[in-house]
Amino acid sequence: MSAMFSSLNRGTDISKGLKHVTAEMKTKNRTEEERATGNLKPKEKPAAATAAATTETKKKDTKAPKPPSKTHSGNKWMIENFTEGQIVLDDTRLNDMVYIGNCKNCTVQIKGKINGVTIDGSTRVGVVCENIVAVIELVNCNSIQLQVTGKTPTVNIDKCNGVQLFVSAAAADPQNPTKIFTSKCSSVNVLIAGDTPDADPTEAPIPEQFTTIIKGKTLETQPAGMSF
Question: What is the pLDDT of residues 33-44, one digit of tens each?
Fold first, then answer.
């Protein structure tokens, strides 16, 4: 009895040392079986979803890269997943299209006159081609060196960074010059070969900043720094 009164005299310290009652230990949260036996069953942690997510992440991390391939079907060449070396296409035809996708640290040489070239999602790749009938397209690329030793009417560059475009003197033909279209690009330089083999090429960057003036109901845009 004296021990009990001694505990009561501890005041607010009387609750120290008591175990915390969790939600599942409360009677109202117990099942019928637990109320009858007095035994609490520990709840299982929802580990299934976590384990599945971990397994899926491991699968993505260990996914093997796709092997390099060079295929020709109909009038289309597919050059994909190369990460080194030099790839040469010398058996081309006039209506052939060449697609270069997901390549890195390699060089592609295309011989002969073909219809067009597309370079997609590639990094640190050099492409050398001769004559193009329709268009050369670059999409989602970084650090690309493209050389056209002959002539191409059009070059489209979209969402690219660090493009060096080498063109022959024929690209500056006043009657039929090469047209270059850029969109969402940065660090694009054009190097135009001289009139003679010994002449130095002329290098010029493609503008990235523009100035737009509202004139009436229309807009007039020029590269930044140029006067209207």
Answer: 666 665 655 555
The tokens of 158 are what?
A: 């979209």
pTM of the predicted model as reported, rounded to 2 decimal places: 0.71
- Residues whose CB is less than 8 angstroms from the CB of residue 127 and which lie 6 or more positions away in sequence, other chains included: 100, 107, 108, 109, 110, 117, 119, 144, 145, 146, 147
Distance, CA of 124 to CA of 160 (rounded, Å): 12
Under DSSP, is residue 82 helix (H, G, I), strand (E, B) or coil? Answer: coil
User: Quick check: 71 pLDDT over 60?
Assistant: yes
Distance CA 152, CA 137 (A): 11
How many C-beta atoms surround the C-beta of residue 106 within 10 A? 19
Any idea where the domains of the chain sit in the sequence? 2-37, 69-223
Helix (H, G, I), strand (E, B) or coil at 204: strand
CATH topology of domain 69-223: Pectate Lyase C-like (2.160.20)
Radius of gyration of the chain (CA): 35
Assess contact for 186 and 164: CB atoms under 8 A: no
Q: Please report, in angstroms and rounded to a whole number, the separation of the first and last CA atoms in the chain.
A: 102
